[in-house]
Amino acid sequence: MRILQTIVPALLPLAQRFLHFCLPNCCLWCDFAVQRPGAQLCDYCQAALPRLHWPAGAQALQLPAVQRGLQSPQFNAVWSLSWYQQPWSHFISAWKLQQDLACGVMLRQQLATVLPEWVLHQHYDAVAYVPVHRKRLRERGFNQSRQLAMTVSCSTDLPLLDLFLAQSHLPHQLGASASARRAQLRRQFRLRPAVNDWQQLPQRILLVDDVLTTGATLNQLSRLLRKAGVQQIGVVTLAITPAPGVSTTLYASQAPYTGPALYSSPSPLSSPESNNLPK
Length: 279
Fold this sequence. Notes:
Elements: H1 2-22, H2 43-48, H3 64-67, E1 77-83, H4 88-98, H5 101-118, E2 126-129, H6 134-140, H7 144-156, E3 164-166, H8 178-185, E4 189-191, H9 193-197, E5 204-208, E6 211-212, H10 216-227, E7 232-240
Helix pairs in contact: 4-5, 5-7
């Protein structure tokens, strides 16, 4: 048994490379074959992804395009991969609403790539995530925030804590106004009963969600953590919705693209958002 436990993990990369050689994945963006085993995007589309880049010590709450869209944020810092824009918005929606698991794998890969640059393990003690109601969990089959938090936990070696309960089943909040989101979220979350039995929560916790829009959900969870004695709360998301009316053109948000134009054409995706993918 011990021999198998040693041999099987060593053979998996070889099997993956063999399968990639025989039948490579198609890029989720352009539909051409990817160059690397296990990748969901080809190298050219990877380079073309719009991104936010954070210098050492910088984070999103320092940007007017973020700060002005939040009402009294209860968290101290935010890191994110990109503005909520194409093609990120398509990939996130396809994962959450259409159960496109390949998009989920790709988004987690993107997050894992940048986490070492953010060196969050030096400033935080644990990772938590936004819960979903059990009815939504049955419908979707997974909690995307928990999966992202698992990626953060594995990449930073920080413990993953299951701290919150969702007490009611809310409709999807896509497109809802800030006031509507706050009204929906009143008394929506609470700390798990077991948390109250712990002597003390870590003083510095990272909250993980897929998208930061108005901050209403993360504010509610942050208030619960503050009441439990947490001193510093950071937020990690895939994307941020900029404040209405604030231009984001001042921020360098796209890495240099050096691939051929052929590879930047969009895939024949099922979502109506695919019509707006960059060409």
